[in-house]
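Honest question from a wet-lab person: if I give you the sequences of every part of a complex, can you actually get the arrangement of the whole thing, not just the pieces? Trying it with mine:
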Amino acid sequence: MSQHAVNGASCRGKVLTLETINPRVKQVEYAVRGPISQRAMQLEKELKQGIKKPFTEVIRANIGDAHAMGQKPITFLRQVMALCSYPDLLEDDKFPEDAKKRAKRILDACGGRSIGAYSASQGIECIRQDVASYIEKRDFGISSNADNIYLSTGASDAIVTILKLLVSGEGHNRTGVMISIPQYPLYSAALAELAAVQINYYLDEDNCWSLDVNELRRALSEARQHCNPRVLCIINPGNPTGQVQSRQCIEDVIRFAKEEHLFLMADEVYQDNVYAKGCKFHSFKKVLFEMGPEYSDIVELASFHSTSKCYMGECGFRGGYMEVINMDPEVKAQLTKLVSVRLCSPVCGQALLDLVVNPPQPDEPSYTKFMKERMAVLSDLAVKANLTERIFNTVPGITCNPVQGAMYTFPRIALPQKAIDKAKEEGHAPDMYYCVRLLEEEGICLVPGSGFGQREGTFHFRMTILPPTEKLKVVLQKIGEFHLRFTEEFL
Amino acid sequence: MSQHAVNGASCRGKVLTLETINPRVKQVEYAVRGPISQRAMQLEKELKQGIKKPFTEVIRANIGDAHAMGQKPITFLRQVMALCSYPDLLEDDKFPEDAKKRAKRILDACGGRSIGAYSASQGIECIRQDVASYIEKRDFGISSNADNIYLSTGASDAIVTILKLLVSGEGHNRTGVMISIPQYPLYSAALAELAAVQINYYLDEDNCWSLDVNELRRALSEARQHCNPRVLCIINPGNPTGQVQSRQCIEDVIRFAKEEHLFLMADEVYQDNVYAKGCKFHSFKKVLFEMGPEYSDIVELASFHSTSKCYMGECGFRGGYMEVINMDPEVKAQLTKLVSVRLCSPVCGQALLDLVVNPPQPDEPSYTKFMKERMAVLSDLAVKANLTERIFNTVPGITCNPVQGAMYTFPRIALPQKAIDKAKEEGHAPDMYYCVRLLEEEGICLVPGSGFGQREGTFHFRMTILPPTEKLKVVLQKIGEFHLRFTEEFL
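Yes, you can. This is the full assembly:
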């Protein structure tokens, strides 16, 4: 028996404890599914058990989960998924011919004609070709190459993979990554896990959460004192802030990235979610190529998309892709190797993505219904975006920018000093305390602004605009009433 | 303009190059999808283009991808997946009642009754309960708690997640992880990425690739000189080596883990793939609890399972789960937080897993067909396991252990010194050179033993036993002929 055995294992306690765990894991935070969301789940269970609460249901406005909020799946997408799952249905007259055609094409591209086979690690080739065609069409003819497309498990997976490639160096030489504040906390979580240096640049709340290149310069020059900034991340349309970047601003950012030798990561998963008049989605890829070869031959860009948002809202399928531009071929080989370790992204998600990028065409039988369903979702979201801004801005102490795009609002809330003190007493960030109280009293689950980052001394929450219109009205009204009650309590 | 801009970005080259990439990523290797597999893909394309080759098709025996090798999906599983994808089919008379019942139950547990909603990060609760019931039944009543079950994106995802938690310390204090040699290269790849110390213990080829605790002791005591060994990984049934561990050996391993204060990771994805007479699958969980509270209250264990192997072979769905035993509650909270950053595993994979752990029962309409299909796959594999061993052992220079379980054979090949020299000339490992030649000459794609690790001076390859029986016979014969030809060439 070894020395260690003689010492007796039982006295030593567990191998894996909070003291011995990977310290980087401890640093990770992800507010969207943090303690508030867990408490919401518990409250739902208690309601089911018949325990009385001041509300009859929990409304989860904390996460961009369209179907959970009652949005119906698009018929065409699900018909093809059923056909791919159980190809005997290809003989069934009830399915339209274009759905069958898509299913056959996908199955033909699968090993053994089964979506149960592994795909190539980069993704099924004909789907990558369809993605490339989709991008070309979206970007008015700017060419896209299927070799630059990597299918992924949602967008999160691809974002983390690219960050993983970019992190290196130690001490002052450690990779720094610029992210917006407020940010989507996947970024801060991934940076914590990779022990990269997070460089905050602040969006301008007074200008509709716009991005100012001078602020990028400030953040970069400060960061150069203590790390090696190599990456600039942009979310457009914005999460959690709902702004849509102007073409001019994108151009400025690209120029800045080139000047400062930064790798650009463009999170464009809300590219179909643009509501405000005068706003339009411009992809970084398109603007980059419109700026001419002086930029488009040089600036390295990865752009991310997903099946989870836009009109589909198919989060559970975990489908997504990224396009990489100007990536060194040797680096691409490393990327392909790295993704191969996980074998492939879910084939159902790949198949669903194919339908998103290759939807029914005007001469196909499913076209009319598909377009009707798609438009219904998007116009509904536009109505709700407007409604949200309008109602919030009637509440004294709540200030809400227009929801130009995406599916969130990030209003600012004025909190009395006594509420701030009370929160500190309870060991909470002030807006966390606010959100906890709202959840306990009204059954409405939001995420506090502190989970996304915000300017010191300001407080916010993120709310999705996804609840059905009538329910959203009630939610907005209840939040308004709560806000007044809460504010009065601490005056 | 900043100093950096003045220097001119274009002269500086790319941000991300092989020199500036994360050095840990460069260390990652994954032979199963390495250069051989990429060359196979290229050869397939060339064949399609009509380019003449010495063969008419490429046979991919490099990866455990059952459907790609012609295995048909199990009807019941796919019927339920179609119903979940397109719930209008619930009205269709063609689907059996038990399939509809399963689909309804899964949909009821989804947000908005849609598999397009995110699930809880740990996985859908009723599916975790079904997994727990399955484990209890498998382990003859030893209790399992749904709170200890985490649904995952295949088994790989969960394995990497647990390793991630366990890695800490620097220098001599860095976490060491014991893995078998030969190993499944997910392990070495994950350890490279996490910069953990890989501790090799060798399986005993002369004893049917069995595991000897003395060898564990040797490896551990050497490793203690330079790192902090905290984890012991076991693959049972074995990949790539196809052995099935005896109950006694599992007991010895558990005792060793307790004595040496090691966290146990049991990769049990081939638990239904046992063919050899006298061999039986014993889960680590069951043996641990049979050893009494002195062990079962203390030893920390994570066990992994997947939808990709066994009789289902549903690799593309990326379904899987892990059960954690004796995990510190604070660590579990960290684990839950960590998986929440990726939101959830693919819901289609979760649903499919539910059917695997909750298959049709004897009183249900799909039972007979389900059992017939299941048995057909497993008995077919048993025939092929036997065939493979028998035929390989008739070839002078090939020595093949019985394929007791899993779906691979890892025969040893004797290579003439001149072949070894030639390989070195070409910059290949000798068995890589052998496999490249086999691929180019016969269109058969295998993975060289060097991709899994092997004792210095020995050479092997891994081959799946998945091709249909008649094709497998041809493959085995062709490899035999190639081996003789290759050996003669270098005598």
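Two things worth pointing out. Chain A touches chain B through 108 residues (CB under 8 Å). Residues 1-10 of chain A have pLDDT under 50 and may be disordered.
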